[in-house]
Design goal:
Layout: H1 11-24, H2 37-49, H3 73-148, E1 152-157, E2 162-165, H4 167-173, H5 177-180, H6 191-205, E3 212-219, E4 225-234, E5 244-251, H7 253-308, H8 311-317
Antiparallel strand pairs: 1-2, 1-5, 3-4, 4-5
Length: 318
């Protein structure tokens, strides 16, 4: 008794405290020693409201449980992991199988496409080869025609009007290639045709004209004028529009001289024919005049003869 009575209270006083405490414990309502987690949680919330406990308190393990429930969480986690791994493995196998099937199909399609592309490539190579051969052949034919043509051919660069002539054109103007290759095409044209031909070239480049077919005069190296009939057309490229003009020139100087001589001869023949017709007409008029004159002459001769025979006097007497 002395061990627990540190305040030296009397027995009666201690019994009184025990009685009051027993009433306060309300043992008839709540059994002494009963522990409820809800009550402790309510007490903890009360302390939190007074700021005596932090809101993130945890009562796990606060009350002793002699028969704690078995914690299957690690087992569940392990089973979940195994299930996920199994699912992923199955999914991976299925995906791999599908992917392999798809890859196999794509490889087969790719091989077919490669074979088709190879065939197309071979076909294109053959077409390109044929086209190159055709172009080369056409170039050779054009070059042969260009060099050996009996008429003059000139390729003009419209930017600077520099010319690339063939041999026949050089012979027409009596120039050497080195001399004429640095000259302007329009500088070779006579003054009367310069402006009109330049306008024709501009219209040709602007596609207002499809081609040019006209007569011009050009100056030779000896300052002589020659008459040319030219046909000009744009040189077209399948991929780009080249500012070049192909001009075909025909020397018609001798032809015009012959035509002029023929005209003069025809005019002379016409004048001769006209004079002959006039002569015939005058002869016809003279013939017509001769008929009454012949009658008059005969009458005069008859009168003379009658006068000689005194026939007129006798006729008067009668």
């Amino acid at each position: 008794m002395e061990k627990y009575n540190t305040q030296n209270k009397t027995k009666e006083h201690l019994l009184y405290e025990a009685k009051i405490i027993k009433e306060l414990t309300m043992h008839h309502v709540i059994e002494i020693g009963l522990t409820n987690i809800g009550r402790w949680k309510h007490i903890a919330d009360t302390f939190v409201s007074f700021g005596m406990v932090k809101p993130d308190y945890n009562l796990d393990g606060f009350i002793y449980n002699p028969n704690p429930p078995t914690d299957y969480t690690p087992l569940k986690i392990a089973l979940s992991i195994i299930a996920v791994i199994l699912f992923l493995t199955i999914f991976n196998n299925i995906s791999t199988k599908r992917l392999n099937t798809k890859l196999k199909s794509e490889i087969e399609e790719k091989e077919l496409v490669q074979e088709e592309l190879k065939a197309i490539n071979e076909n294109l190579e053959n077409l390109v080869k044929d086209e190159v051969e055709k172009r080369f052949e056409a170039e050779m034919i054009f070059r042969a025609i260009f060099e050996n043509s009996p008429i003059g051919i000139v390729v003009i660069d419209f930017k600077n009007m520099k010319i690339n002539p063939n041999g026949t054109f050089l012979k027409m103007l009596k120039y050497e290639f080195d001399e004429i290759s640095q000259m302007n095409f329009l500088d070779l044209v006579c003054h009367e045709d310069f402006t009109s031909l330049k306008e024709d070239f501009v219209f040709l480049l602007d596609k207002k004209y499809i081609s040019i077919n006209r007569h011009i005069c050009m100056n030779t190296k000896d300052k002589e004028l020659i008459d040319l009939n030219i046909y000009a057309k744009i040189i077209k490229n399948e991929h780009t529009f080249a500012d070049k003009i192909l001009v075909v020139c025909e020397d018609i100087t001798q032809k015009l001289k012959i035509e002029q001589k023929q005209k003069e001869h025809d005019m002379m023949m016409f004048q001769q024919s006209k004079m002959a017709m006039m002569g015939e007409m005058i002869g016809s008029i003279g013939h017509q005049w001769k008929q009454p004159l012949n009658v008059l002459i005969l009458m005069i001769v008859g009168l003379n003869c009658s006068n000689l025979d005194n026939t007129i006097d006798n006729q008067k007497n009668r």
